[in-house]
Structure formats: C-alpha cells, structure tokens
Design a protein that fits this description.
Keywords: Signal. InterPro entries: Ig-like_fold. The protein is mainly beta. The protein has 2 domains: about 160 residues, Immunoglobulin-like (Sandwich); about 110 residues, Macroglobulin (MG2) domain (Immunoglobulin-like). Helices cover about 10% and strands about 40% of the residues. The protein binds copper (II) ion (CU). Copper (II) ion binds next to loops.
C-alpha cells in the first residue's frame, strides 16, 4: 500500500513539473547584446541572431503621433520576411518610461520584408524603453530593446516603491496578487491573481480571452533592461484565479503588469515587487 502511494505521489509530482515546464515562458534579455542571456522552456528552438533598426520619422516628441518603423534583419543584414503569429500577433511592443510609471502594450502592423510600423504616442518627455517581442519563422521568441529620448515636458522620475498590499482595482475589478513564498531571484515563483467584483466582492468567473489567453503578465526590472513576458499555466480559465509561473533573474525591484479583459474592456493592474537574493 505504501509503495502504491509512493508511485501515485511521484506520478503527480512528475505531472506537476511537466505542466510547469511546458506552459511557462521565460524571457530575459539585457540591452547589451554581448551579455545576452536568453532562457526558455524546454521546447524552445535555437534563437536566431537578429539586427533591428528602430526608426522614427521625426525625432519623437510628446502629444503627437510618432510614426515608428522597426526593421528586423538576420545577422547578415538580410530582412527576415516570415514571422510566427504568437498570441494572435506577429509582434508585441512594450513602450515604458525608464522609471516604469508609463506603460503601453501595442501591436505594430507587419508590412512585409521585415518591416513593422506603428504610431506611438508619448504622454510625457524623457527616456523610454521600447521592447519588441516576436518569433521569426521556425525560431524561438526573440526580444529586442531600444532606448529613445522623447522631447517635451519631462516630470521628475517617479521612484519605484514595493507595494505594501497586493490588491489593486481597475474598471471595477478587484485584483489580488498572491505569492506563496518570499520572492527570491533564480527561484521558480507562482504569481496567483485572484479576481473579485470590486462592489459585490463576488468572485469573477467571466474574464474573456485576451490575445489568446486569460491574461498576460509583463515584468520589467527597475531600469527596464530585463524583460519577462509570462503566460498563464492554464490559458483557458475565466477566473476567479489565474496562475503565472516565472523566475526573476536577479535581486531587485520589479514592476509587474497584469493584463486582462472583462466586459469587452482590457484592464491593466500594476504591482511593484521586491525580489531578494
Ligand atoms: Cu501583445
């Protein structure tokens, strides 16, 4: 009997580990490509070396539409022409102010021959980090970053302070972030988002798929040089919990944006977390 129990427990552990590996996605890239450290799930294919041209039609400024062209080339300078559709899009672009107080997640249009275009609006001046996330055909997830200086009124940077309580409300949805253990660098962590109606406190069961999953979690470190894009363990759940499995690459303060959809409206909940050694 004991033996049988042991076998069952082992099997369950194996299934849990398998599920973890299969569904978690982990990306990290340093701005310095020479020190690039890319990590991924076991199914990951070889990452292709790419070059990226970032070109604004005019030097970027506030309160206007800035036309951005992003061109993806291989390491010989030849445009990469085919991209996989990843969570409904060929490219995901994160635009974040360097202090992480401003955040946008937008989707450039693919024009062919490696060229993507997108209008970008900045609500303030200063330094912004642009992060393009895409998959060249037959290759693995690829992340490219670019820092731009935006002309216009530039407020003093907002300091990044870890949240004391991990409960946020957006669009009438109350979102609690639960983390089982103390956050430690290089240790697998489960981020568990719990959803309640802010008024009635009833569990929310009617989240809608957003870009092919119940939600998306984007994580940046304090200076926006380390980027993680995490997808849920189970993409099909509708609430009242959504679990995201990730690993923070180093100690420090991180900002986490959870992006979800309900009643045809996207809502974003930001959390600031401290990760210890
Ligand atoms: Cu996206």
């Amino acid at each position: 009997m004991k033996k049988l129990l042991f076998v069952v427990v082992s099997l369950l552990t194996m299934i849990a580990l398998f599920a973890c590996n299969k569904d978690s996605e982990y990306k990290q890239i340093k701005q310095d490509m020479a020190n690039m450290n890319h990590n991924g799930s076991s199914k990951e294919k070889q990452q292709v070396a790419v070059q990226t041209d970032w070109n604004f039609k005019q030097s970027p400024q506030t309160n206007t539409t800035n036309q951005l062209t992003i061109t993806i080339k291989d390491n010989k300078g030849k445009p990469i022409s085919e991209f996989e559709v990843n969570h409904e899009k060929k490219m995901h672009l994160i635009v974040a102010s360097k202090d992480l107080s401003k955040y946008q997640h937008i989707h450039p249009t693919y024009k062919g021959k490696g060229v993507f275009t997108v209008p970008v609006t900045f609500t303030q001046g200063g330094s912004f980090q642009l992060i393009a996330d895409f998959v060249p055909k037959g290759q693995s997830d690829t992340v490219q970053m670019h820092t731009v200086s935006v002309k216009g009124n530039t407020p003093a940077p907002v300091s990044l302070t870890p949240d004391k309580t991990l409960v946020k409300t957006a669009n009438g949805n109350q979102v609690s972030l639960k983390i089982d253990t103390q956050l430690k660098a290089n240790q697998e962590t489960m981020l568990n988002f719990h959803f309640e109606d802010a008024k009635t406190k009833q569990p929310i069961q009617d989240l809608q798929p957003y870009l092919g999953a119940v939600g998306h979690v984007v994580i940046l470190n304090q200076d926006a040089t380390k980027y993680l894009h995490v997808h849920p363990m189970d993409e099909r759940v509708k609430g009242s919990n959504a679990m995201f499995h990730t690993t923070f690459p180093s100690p420090g303060v991180y900002k986490v944006w959870g992006e979800f959809q309900r009643s045809n409206k996207i809502f974003i909940v930001p959390f600031v977390l401290e990760v210890s050694k």
